[in-house]
Design goal:
eight-stranded mixed beta sheet; about 400 residues; alpha/beta
Length: about 400
Amino acid sequence: MTTTPPRRVDVVVVGAGQAGLSAAYHLRRAGLRAGDGSGVASEGAASGDGVPARVVDDATSGTGARAGAGAGTGTGTFVLLDDAPEPGGAWQHRWPSLTMQHTHAVHELPGMPLEGFDPQEPASAAVGRYFAAYEQRFALPVVRPVRVGAVRDAGQGLLSVETDRGRWLTRALVNATGTWQRPFWPSYPGQSGFAGQQLHTHDFRSASDFLGRHVVVVGGGTSAVQLLLQIADVTTTTWVTRTPPTFLPRAFDEEWGREVVARVDERTRAGLPPLSVVGVTGLPLTEEYQRGIDRGVLVPLPMFARIVPDGVRWDPRDVPPAPEHLRADVLLWATGFRAGLDHLAPLRLRGHGGGIVMDGTQVVADPRVQLVGYGPSASTIGANRAGREAVRNVRRLLAL
């Protein structure tokens, strides 16, 4: 029985969303070439300014540069592994009614403006098209679809990246897997006995799916608010949240974003599980949101105490008071996501606080690992800066 030998590169980037593409761009700018098996010709835009002759997303094509990893590789090699079948990161999975004008924010990737889209166009299509053009323009060595199962210490300073399409040995890992694959479902008494439908925002497609049914939306973030406004146009709704959001009369600008990122960064440096960036921003009080408040749609009830077959029940002692019982046909959990880091478990990166102790993007317990799209960079606000910082750390670590 024969086994395919592992491919060797200096840097593996996992995930081709905003953070992963930003890191890949800066690796190209630093002069790194397409790694073995990437399917991208190595004579592309090493400086980040040209257009590749072709891009072939095939891990077995063998058309990439054949330089091995380790000292003496010159500028170094890298590859970007993505589990999605098409470019677009998590954006390609968003519901069709999420248009560009209704996104919380879509920031440009470094080196290429985001322009020429219709504000009414679904974000899934517009961002997917933008990401695809970006990969082509900068000759980014993307392999897809490929799912990373585990990352292990391989000895001699190397990490082994195990996937469903073979194994890569690398000197450094930039992890940009985001959160979309890990929707968070809270657990409540009676949940398994609910006779209606339960779904997460991860699986939402259209408000029309709930026509004629009473929908209880659970959660206090942007997704909960936007979905409530859509669903309330076609049927009855109730909003339930543990912590009511704060509506702030200001635009979500760069200054606000920097303040929020700094607050999340404090937690990751202390080794605590990160809070969602969006979860600590509050919500900008737009005209649309104000109309929702005036209509009584965006007026939350406290969190219910238990779920019953035909709806939900509250504790009579709740303050502010809530109805003792509410009939519901659908429970829509707009309760956020958790970082998709299960494949890093063999490296034992988590500390006593339950989180991963970070110094910027670098994991303190293993400096070979950079986390982008985690903690303070878990949004398009911080992802671009995180990609640049991660590559700076990698170059220092590998003396590239």
